[in-house]
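Hello,

Our lab assistant flagged a job as stuck in the queue for most of the afternoon. It eventually completed. Since we weren't sure the result was trustworthy after the delay, we are filing this so someone can double-check. Below is the sequence as submitted and the structure that was eventually returned. Let us know if re-running is recommended.
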Amino acid sequence: MEKTIVVDADKCTGCRICELICSIAKQGEFNPRKSYIRVLFNNEFGVYIPVLKTECDFCGRCIEWCPTQALKIVDPREAALMRAKSKVGRFPIPVVS
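-- returned structure --
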């Protein structure tokens, strides 16, 4: 089953816990530079935006540890429906290589 992670940018505080959890789970060390998820700040909208690297396998550890529950795993169809119905601030996380 294909999956994607959706972020509610209104809930994301930019704490970057997801980066730390991913790096320890996948690389065995707390090093955000080795994480498969990065949290960027969008100046135009004033929101934090988690971005996935293509190596992400959607294990869900970032979601488990998100203190504000800003992340959620969904299938691509549900993500498309959410995007069509939502305001700016809730969208599928972009994937970068």
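-- support follow-up --
The delay was a queue issue, not a problem with the job. The result is valid. Residues 17-27 form the longest helix (11 residues). The chain has one domain: 4-96.
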